[in-house]
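quick one, 169 residues, struct below
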Amino acid sequence: MGTNSTTSYWTPDTKTYQELQKLKKFVDFVAGLEYVSPEEKSNAEIIKQQIENFNQPYPTYECHVSLNLFNYDLRECKGKGTYRRKWSVCFERNIFEIEAKCQDVGDDYYKDNKTTYYGIIYFKKDIPCKRMYMETDINEFIADAMNYKSYINESLNEIEVNIEIWDIH
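---
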């Protein structure tokens, strides 16, 4: 694993770089949904270019791409059940995080979060822990996200997409 000698950021090794490239498929999928604005489509292209260039000097943007299913009534703690299912990719504060999560409301408004997929890559040069952790292959995360319609039911049926970028300061 290498580091970029001109910065305090880690440059991905070949294996990690190849794993990250798989995420362009997720970005393309989310950007291709009917719920995406023209600005979000443009953001998706910038995010894909940044993923493509993760083996170059450190990126200039932080980003977030997510696909969410909601039940807004349950989200306001009006009943029991699943109020949110999400698939997200986020690059922020030198951390690339990949997550699929199901969030429930139970008795006494207790929220139970069930993570079904989690991966993390630390881009800070010096870290006291393992640099990369992936529960399963990224392709499984992408396949599950692409199957999002199978999770839609009478209760969990509001769809929200976010594709955001912001400058690193």
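Residues 12-54+61-167 form one domain.
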